[in-house]
Amino acid sequence: MRTIWGLLIAGAASFYLFFHTDTFNFLSNSTSLYAMAAEEQIEGPLKMEVILEREYLDGEVSQETIEETIWTLEDFWAKYDQWQLVDMDIDYIVFRRKMDDISPLLKANGYFGITEDGTLTIFNGRPQKTNIIQSFFQIDLGKLESTKCEELKKGIPIVSKDRYVEVLETFKSYTAGEKQAN
């Protein structure tokens, strides 16, 4: 019987210490010692790694990593108000933004071309089998004019968003399998 009473008294004492000391009092409305310690450690501006992801019309995603000094949270959030928050941790934050443009890669080295099966494709450099970036739709080569076919075989450089859209629109009318209204 003494053992049971001893265990009950020890349990009650443990229960009391757990819920009534500042170290373990998670249920009280006052600030915990852990939160106060964290507040005391932050001195001056906060430095954080910011990762900016840009998603382009052609599907390419680029990343830029910068170290940001945060003086006020209000100014920081205002600076990135055009960006979407994707991920956040204690030492980094990731923002993403959809760009209304094609990627720098396409502007510098992108070419529209055609694969052996007649699929309109973007290549990294002049059209070859091994450097495909993106494929679109199959073209009916029987409907395609010989000059346009030669252009695609040589490669049509993509230098701007306007050129990208123009070429896609031009060759959309030659899509295989669709019947054109006269």
UniProtKB/TrEMBL annotation:
Residues 48-97 form the Bypass-of-forespore C N-terminal domain. Residues 100-173 form the Bypass of forespore C C-terminal domain. InterPro entries: BofC_C, BofC_C_sf, BOFC_N, BOFC_N_sf. Pfam families: BofC_C (PF08955), BOFC_N (PF08977). Transmembrane segments: none annotated. This is Forespore regulator of the sigma-K checkpoint. It comes from Cytobacillus firmus DS1.
